[in-house]
Automatic annotation (TrEMBL):
<keyword id="KW-0276">Fatty acid metabolism</keyword>
<dbReference type="InterPro" id="IPR016039">
    <property type="entry name" value="Thiolase-like"/>
</dbReference>
<dbReference type="InterPro" id="IPR020616">
    <property type="entry name" value="Thiolase_N"/>
</dbReference>
<protein>
    <recommendedName>
        <fullName>Trifunctional enzyme subunit beta, mitochondrial</fullName>
        <ecNumber>2.3.1.155</ecNumber>
        <ecNumber>2.3.1.16</ecNumber>
    </recommendedName>
</protein>
<keyword id="KW-0007">Acetylation</keyword>
<keyword id="KW-0809">Transit peptide</keyword>
<dbReference type="GO" id="GO:0050633">
    <property type="term" value="F:acetyl-CoA C-myristoyltransferase activity"/>
</dbReference>
<keyword id="KW-1000">Mitochondrion outer membrane</keyword>
<dbReference type="GO" id="GO:0016507">
    <property type="term" value="C:mitochondrial fatty acid beta-oxidation multienzyme complex"/>
</dbReference>
<keyword id="KW-0443">Lipid metabolism</keyword>
<dbReference type="Pfam" id="PF02803">
    <property type="entry name" value="Thiolase_C"/>
</dbReference>
<keyword id="KW-0999">Mitochondrion inner membrane</keyword>
<keyword id="KW-0012">Acyltransferase</keyword>
<comment type="function">
    <text>Mitochondrial trifunctional enzyme catalyzes the last three of the four reactions of the mitochondrial beta-oxidation pathway. The mitochondrial beta-oxidation pathway is the major energy-producing process in tissues and is performed through four consecutive reactions breaking down fatty acids into acetyl-CoA. Among the enzymes involved in this pathway, the trifunctional enzyme exhibits specificity for long-chain fatty acids.</text>
</comment>
<dbReference type="InterPro" id="IPR002155">
    <property type="entry name" value="Thiolase"/>
</dbReference>
<comment type="pathway">
    <text>Lipid metabolism; fatty acid beta-oxidation.</text>
</comment>
<feature type="domain" description="Thiolase C-terminal">
    <location>
        <begin position="331"/>
        <end position="469"/>
    </location>
</feature>
Length: 473
């Protein structure tokens, strides 16, 4: 996220009552790549009288650094590629889909309902309803849970959910003063009226309004918030760089081993076929240490190397009632069980969603952290991840902010993001949620686990968590 945010840096202020309470968290960059999960006899999360909802398949385009191979496309092109990849992977008849819902964040005004435009260009029947949702970095999470709700309510049996983000080309607007004059010009009827309006234009009116990943309520960029959060929880620059190096190293291993099975090749018009993510770049602590702070200078700890990068990409998942999936001959990958959404203070706790959402979803399901075999947690910044891990390990934070007597407990590193995460694979804002859920389902299959927990933070101080249960092999 670094390059879009550098122009909005403000002074750093730290919640000092937090900073003294959180020590360093040991982090090994040589974590065991394939967790040896001991398959235990665990209860299923199926509930009597509640319809089983399954993830049949999940795919995504390769996630690419913005400004690279996808640069001449539009958002619906990427979403269309994901939809077509899902159809090719499953063999699903296009008329078997009841509804399509997509998530996105920075919208292209020409295709504001990108779900509809992508579906039409992918060849779906024009009788299939489609809509687009936005909830910052958990937009495709919202798309998936919307699909689950439609199926649970008995409205539909087969829904495609997905997400897309295309940051190679973002809307750049005239200033508001300039827009007001231009709109008035459009209504002016006489030459005199038009000349009068034109005479009001000043050079400053031509300054464009550039989009930024910033909070409207606080005027703070997300990178600035991440820097303050890292300082508040005592997360050092070394811890952040070490975690980022771990993410890239694990992603490279997963890529080399062919574990990123959700990727579908994409023939970019006028260019070569894209087969893999291009942002995975393992480095060294020495190289990372040379980078200057990206947001709070000169003493900040968040850099381009320990932040997720500006990414283009799209994802799609097929969600069905279990009964319908089996009737059509599909073998589901996982059950989609319980989920929660949370919100908190967007200034001091902007990126703390995982800490708030995790205990809530576990309590709803009657599970503990020890019951979870696979964790997939969104990596917006290494400092954000480490701050959440420290908050989860803190009795004080649990008692002060969560209303709990004891700490939540942090996910063990040998179960966390073992195929890399958003820091290395990339983070197309609207598409990441589907990647997380599909990765959790695939890892449960590979590692022999039963429960996966997916969780993410989002702008506005919001967050999400979902429980995924392995489908019987």
């Amino acid at each position: 996220m670094a390059s879009m945010l550098l122009n909005s840096v403000r002074s750093c202020s730290v919640n000092s009552s937090w900073g003294v309470r959180f020590g360093a968290r040991a982090l090994s960059t040589t974590s065991q790549f394939q967790a040896q999960v001991q398959t235990k006899s665990k209860k299923t999360l199926a509930r009597p009288g509640v319809k089983n909802i399954v993830l049949v398949e999940g795919v995504r385009t390769p996630f690419l650094l913005s400004g690279t191979t996808y640069v001449d496309l539009m958002p619906h092109d990427l979403a269309r590629a994901a939809l077509q990849g899902l159809l090719d992977r499953t063999g699903l008849p296009k008329d078997a889909v009841d509804y399509i819902v997509y998530g996105t964040v920075i919208q292209e005004v020409k295709t504001s309902n990108v779900a509809r435009e992508a579906a039409l260009t992918a060849g779906f029947c024009d009788k299939i309803p489609c809509h687009t949702v936005t909830m910052a970095c958990i937009s495709s999470n919202q798309a998936m849970t919307t699909a689950c709700g439609l199926i649970a309510a008995g409205q539909y049996d087969a829904v495609i959910a997905g997400g897309v983000e295309f940051l190679s080309d973002v809307p750049i607007r005239h200033s508001r003063k300039m827009r007001k004059i231009m709109l008035s010009l459009n209504k002016a009827k006489t030459v005199g009226q038009k000349m009068g309006l034109i005479s009001k234009i000043r050079m400053g009116h031509f300054a464009p309004e550039l989009p930024a990943v910033a909070e409207f309520s606080t005027a703070e960029t997300m990178g600035h918030s991440a820097d303050r959060l890292a300082a508040a929880f005592g997360v050092s620059r070394m811890e952040q760089d070490e975690y980022a190096m771990r993410s890239h190293s694990l992603a490279k291993q997963a890529q080399d081993k062919g574990l990123l099975e959700d990727i579908v090749p994409f023939k970019v018009p006028g260019r070569d076929i894209v087969f893999k993510d291009n942002g995975i770049r393992p480095s060294s602590m020495e190289q990372m240490a040379k980078l200057k702070p990206a947001f709070i200078r000169p003493h900040g700890t968040v850099t381009a190397a320990n932040s997720s990068f500006i990414t283009d990409g799209a994802s799609a998942v097929l969600i069905m009632s279990e009964e319908k999936a089996l009737a059509m001959g599909f073998k589901p990958k996982a059950y989609l069980r319980d989920f929660v959404y949370v919100s908190q203070d967007p200034k001091d706790q902007l990126l703390m969603g995982p800490t708030y959402a995790t205990p809530k979803v576990l309590e709803r399901a009657g599970l503990s952290m020890n019951d979870i075999d696979v964790f997939e947690v969104h990596e917006a910044f290494a400092g954000q991840i480490m701050a959440n891990l420290k908050a989860m390990e803190s009795d004080w934070f649990a008692q002060t902010y969560l209303g709990r007597k004891t700490k939540v407990g942090a996910p063990p590193m040998e179960k966390l993001n073992l195929w890399g995460g958003s820091l290395s694979l990339g983070h197309p804002f609207g598409a990441t949620g589907c990647r997380l859920v599909t990765a959790a389902a695939l890892r449960l299959q590979k590692e022999g686990g039963q429960y996966g927990l997916v969780t993410a933070c989002a702008a506005g101080g919001q967050g999400h968590a979902m429980l995924v249960e392995a489908y019987p092999q």
